[in-house]
Amino acid sequence: MPHRLLEQESRLSGLLRPSRQGVAFSQSFYVKYGKRALDLVSSALGLIALSPLFALVSCCIKLTTRGPVFYRQVRIGKDGRKFRILKFRSMVKDASENGLGITVSGDRRVTAVGRFLRSYKIDELPQLWNVLHGDMSLVGPRPELPIYVADYTQEQQLVLSARPGITDHASLAYRNEEEILAGHEDPEAFYRTHILPDKLTRNLAYLQSVSLRGDLRVISATVASSFLPSDTTQKSSRL
Questions:
Q1: Can you give the residue ranges of every domain in the chain?
Q2: FRET partner for 239 with CA separation of 20 to 30 A, picked from 20, 104, 153, 197?
């Protein structure tokens, strides 16, 4: 196991050097200035407007389980830089040390409150702070764990030329990801060989045509889908 970790770290350290191959999307006015402006205004207003909900969720987590309210995990962001993504804790304390890096439907590490939060994607809302801080964007490729990013191909690494997002086309397509993974004998292997490559393909396609209209559509679709629990969305989105 130590040798495997050292090998992964070695590959990742090479990957984290800023690439000079260019970015994967055009340098339009929106990409240069508008996207960040939208992120700043929306995340600030969102954090203020959702503060009562944040307080309620925090109380529910503290009163029902042992451990912190928030969960922080190292992810890979723009230009391969590491940052800590912020979520409401939906699993038992130290869950990441006792299981896979992915979650499947029925995972016993997920708490009762956490199951509800994950079903409506409420656990992702604290990432508005990551957006305000500049680690993330509202729309963009979802940030992955270092262990998965270390295996990206040269082309797939181009997704690191943009800030990762809270939501994207791949997140909408794989809203029922936990249920999809639960149907396979080796969920992590299926994630690595099927789901992740397809997500990265979708992300690269998004980066070719970033626009305000496109981002607003993704945000609207994400908000609309959040009103339905993940297990009631159409199976056609599972792919």
A1: 28-238
A2: 153
